[in-house]
Amino acid sequence: MTIREKILEFVNSEEYSPMIKEEILVQFEIDYSMKKEFYKILNDLEKEGLLIKTANEKYVPINNDYLIVGKLQGNERGFGFVIPDEKGKDDVFIPAENMLGAMHGDRVVANILKKSPEGRRDEGEIIRILSRENQFIVGTFEENKSFGFLIPDDQKIAYDVFIPKGSFGDAKNGHKVVVEIKSWPEPRRNPEGKVVEVLGYIDEKGTDILSIIRQFKLPEEFPERIKDIATNIEQEISPKDMEGRTDLRDLKTFTIDGPDAKDLDDAISIEALENGNYSLGVHIADVAHYIKENSPLDKEALNRGNSVYLIDRVVPMLPKELSNGICSLNPNEDRLTLSVIMEINKNGNVVNHKILESVINSKARLIYDDVSDYLENEDEAAKEKLINLLPELDNMLELAQILNDKRDKRGSIDFDFPETMIILDDEGIPVEIKKMDRRIANRMIEEFMLVTNETVAEEYFWAEIPFLYRIHEEPSEDKLANFAKFIHNFGYRLKGKEIHPKELQLLTKEIKGKKEEIVISTLLLRSLRKAKYSSEPDVHFGLASKYYSHFTAPIRRYPDLVIHRIIKDNLKGKLSIDKQRILEDRLPEIADHTSMTERRAEEAEREVEDMKKAQYMSDKIGEKYEGIISSLTSFGIFVQLENTIEGLVHFSNMLDDYYNFDEENYYIIGERSKKIYRLGDTVNIEVVGADPLKRNIDFALID
Question: What CATH class does 3-61 carry?
Fold first, then answer.
């Protein structure tokens, strides 16, 4: 047992009474020369929220129902919610007067003041700030005569930041800037800061997206040392690189990607076998060959966790010499790969498979739209481009349908949300926003990646080798019960208490094409837990899969790179007992970190999309559109347009009556006219406002 574990056991024991650190030191009979290390352990336990130091410097455990440790989620109106670290505990509401100067993202200890009835949040006060999240804040600089202040971009930060005259740097009124906090907020006193970076005026090209990169602390530029290492990576494969690999260069492999893709990390080969089965090869760039564990490149990739795609730019996980160079499966170039060769029968079952280190030479770089044009419409121009691969594409279509049917039978939920395509001009201004088609070629590649990820995960599950899984835990009963109550208003129902994915899948089919489809699908998605990485195997609820991993994108996802290393070590007999113990220690941390970087990437991507949508609508004021009611709230109606843009019709803009939200029946009703608005109703709107800084779009209903 470590000292840390012994301390926790001691302070949580029944005979323990609160002590100062010197008393605990004496209890443990620690040598005086080691006291600094001992006090550091105590300090770390306090920072992690496992102990708390009282006003009289005594340490007490956090082990009762009234103290909650967690992350603060702020609100622009000053109040917040503590999201507990401990699973299963509900969020705690913190009124503005009880925030103790804590800011959005801080780790805090909250004391519960008022227990609330079932279904409502407990109310509390923050009594300790364990760690600060916002050392640097991005926002708009505003200058007064004798001082300035920063209006944060992140609306969850309720404070403006005071900036003394001598701390402006080169900032001018209206600039987007990064401010370093020099003193934290206190009750009735704003934080104080210093301008450390000027990003430019908001209407200058690229400043808006750069602001979001800084807001989410995305590591945009690679350090010079990493650039130097990347520049020296050999861009051709040597005979030594190919030693011990299966030579698949004569196999007909090819890639299918978007027209602008530069990081081609997966290639396909396919053959119809004489026994009626298919041989499907999925060949993934062997990034692990170039990035050795614990090397500077590896540490940088782990820190980034994944690539982030922000409309007109990518914040990559790997330098371009790897992602667009030697690891990209470019046509007619020898490339190192990890190949999964699967024999799949007519029922979609993988009856045989092998995973091997290989070398391939891709025969063609295909484009999604060309493949879809041929398979969907027999388009002659597309057919001409693909003439050397027509039998392979026909086999792909057949096999993808078989695999999809198999997933469908077991209950895999296929959310078919319209994705948004935002087209920018040379100045970064959005000139067109439309739905992005999810066509047959995209769906085929999805099916092949899914079956590969499942096959790899199942093999390593049964081998009982430490591994990283992609899991999607079963939803909570409470959330599904609320969802069932919601859909009852539309005449749908879920049967039984324990809901199988199949039940939800049947619902998504039942609502397909109906006006309430997007609304119910969105709420269903919110009722499910988020998928994440885990060192412990668990189901993937959404895919109705017992075993799942992420194996197919090591150029842009760190977990894929990790399991490539595990597989390569296993293939070479290098997974010793000691190595497996090291993996068991490290994998939980990697899973937590990469789950966090994935969430950060999703939030940043959504923020950029929302900002560009508001920017696009800002010169459409007064224009009229048709849309459907996509959400109802206590303050207004959200309406979604055909191009996926969503705006709010605030009750204050509904002047013909006084409207209320009837939560039980889930509709908006006028007090006098009894006029009712329901989810999925088609309405006509006029654009009355759009604020790119706040990511808001305002509509008004018109007859």
Answer: mainly alpha
Q: Can you give the pTM of this predicted structure?
A: 0.88
d(C-alpha 441, C-alpha 566), whole Å: 31
| pLDDT confidence of residue 432 | 95
B/e letters for 611-630, b = 16+ CB within 10 Å, e = fewer, are bbbbbbbeeeeeeebebbbb
Q: For 93-134, how does the pLDDT look when each residue is reduced to its tens digit (9 = 90+)?
A: 999 999 999 999 999 988 888 877 766 788 989 988 988 999
Residue ranges of domains in the chain:
3-61, 67-131, 136-201, 229-400+412-457+554-574, 477-528, 618-702
What type of residue is 54? T
What kind and span of H or E run contains 401?
helix 390-410
Distance between CA atoms of 182 and 442, rounded to whole angstroms? 49
* Distance in angstroms (rounded) separating the CA atoms of residues 675 and 658: 10
| Integer-rounded Cα radius of gyration of the chain | 28
Long-range Cβ contact pairs of 267-272 (< 8 A, separation 24 or more): 267/329, 267/337, 267/360, 267/362, 268/392, 268/396, 268/445, 268/448, 269/392, 270/392, 270/395, 270/396, 270/399, 271/395, 272/395
Give the model confidence (pLDDT) of 531-557 as tens digits: 999 999 999 999 999 999 999 999 999
At 128, which helix (H) or strand (E)?
A: strand 122-131
Inter-residue contact 358 to 283 (CB < 8 Å): yes
Cα(613)–Cα(607) distance, integer angstroms: 10
Q: Which CATH number fits the domain 618-702, given the four candidates 3.40.50.300, 2.40.50.140, 3.40.390.30, 1.10.10.10?
A: 2.40.50.140
> What span, in angstroms and rounded, lies between the C-alpha atoms of 317 and 315?
7
Tokens of 454: 């499942």
Would you state the torsion angle of the CA atoms of residues 513, 518, 523, 524, taken in this order, to the nearest 10 degrees?
40
pLDDT, greater one: 188 or 246? 246
Domain 67-131, second-level architecture: Beta Barrel (2.40)
Indicate the pLDDT class of residue 570, thresholds 50, 70 and 90: very high
Q: What separation in angstroms does the CA of 106 have from each of 135, 189, 232?
A: 10, 18, 41
